[in-house]
Amino acid sequence: MNTFGNVSYKNFKRYDNSPISVELWEDQKPVPMHCHRHFDFALITKGSCLHRYKGVQVPLIPGDVFLIEPDEPHGYEIQAAVTIINCMFYPKTLSSENTQMMQSAWKPAENENLRQQWEDLLQFVTLEEDRIDPKIRQAGLNAQGIIHLDREELETMEGLLRAMLREQEEQKLYSADVKSAYLQLILVLLSRVQTEKTEQIRQHSHKKKDLIYHALVYIEDHLEQKIDFNDLAEKGYMSPAYFRRIFKDVTGLTPTEYLNRMRIVRSLEYLEKEKSTIAEAAAMVGIYDANYYSRMFKKVMGYSPRYFKSIR
After folding, report:
1. Where are the domains of the chain?
2. Does the domain made of 203-311 have the CATH classification 1.10.10.10?
3. What confidence score (pLDDT) does residue 312 get?
4. Beta partners for 50?
5. 9-56 tens-digit pLDDT
6. Which of 64, 91, 149, 178 could make a disulfide contact with 60, Cβ separation 3.0–4.6 Å?
7. CB-CB contact of 97 with 26 (8 Å)
């Protein structure tokens, strides 16, 4: 690691003769702000962390993938023991096809597309009382360029990255070429995800999407209460089925999935900062069955709340 000014630069770790390196990072220690000369895209597969990058800090959970540009400081504060697969590379040494795919996957998104990222609300899930207008909340995700993958997309992406890691470890004939091919496939898939989600959200009018944004704020402000989605649909003059359809198009999650993940992220703060018991943390986010809460926690975070408590 080299230091220039007040910023530490991490060196590119070369494992073979390829301009691509893959690393599996599993830890609960914070990573201080640092830079590197190469590109780095990261996939969260387990746990949760706060990522500071481009002047904003947002929480990341499994399914989040993002690109770190050269010479841009970033760092992590770990909320719950996290697993990240990093793919580091130098675009100038890759083929022109790879470079085009990278530019397509992380091209500047329209504001409409950013609204469908539900994590923009998660960065404001806090014990503080202040609330921020939902349209302003887009700025953090816009700056960090986060793409959120659904379960199937996550499994596909993780499988490709782990296949690259195996090629790197085994170093068989033409392994460098195989890694490059995997990287190009990953970038193609990311481009497709972005395109599909952009088209989905364009199908709905501004008024209907605004109703969903207000529903998101309502959910955030009433996590500890029973939330009736049929009632929210009625207030927006929509049928429950149509409400659920627009909600998923805008957020990438069903209303229930969104509510559950919001509750789990909020409960992390109670478990850590308030030192609440598992049952207490569950009750404070409106879940009164500790066993159900534990199952939900494991589904979202990748491990149990008891394990989370044991490592804090």
Report:
1. 2-201, 203-311
2. no
3. 62
4. 59, 77
5. 988 988 888 889 999 998 888 899 999 999 998 999 988 888 888 887
6. 64
7. no
Alpha-carbon gap, residue 82 to 268, rounded angstroms:
13
Residues of the chain with pLDDT under 70: 1-5, 91-143, 197-207, 252, 311-312
Architecture of domain 2-201: Sandwich (2.60)
| Neighbouring C-alpha atoms within 13 Å toward the C-beta of 223 | 24
| Torsion angles phi and psi, residue 113, rounded to 5 | -70, -35
Could you please report the per-residue DSSP string of 48-108?
EEEEEETTEEEEE-TTEEEEE-TT--EEEEEEEEEEEEEEEE-GGGS-HHHHHHHHHHTSP
Please give the pLDDT value at position 143.
61
Q: What residue type is assigned to position 54 of the chain?
A: K
CA angle 41, 47, 53 (to 5 degrees): 40
In the chain the first and final C-alpha atoms are separated, in Å, by 28
Same fold, 2-201 and 203-311: no
Q: CA 143, CA 32: separation in Å to the nearest integer?
A: 19
Q: Please give the pLDDT value at position 257.
A: 84
Q: What is the DSSP letter of 10?
A: P
Q: How many residues are recorded in the chain?
A: 312
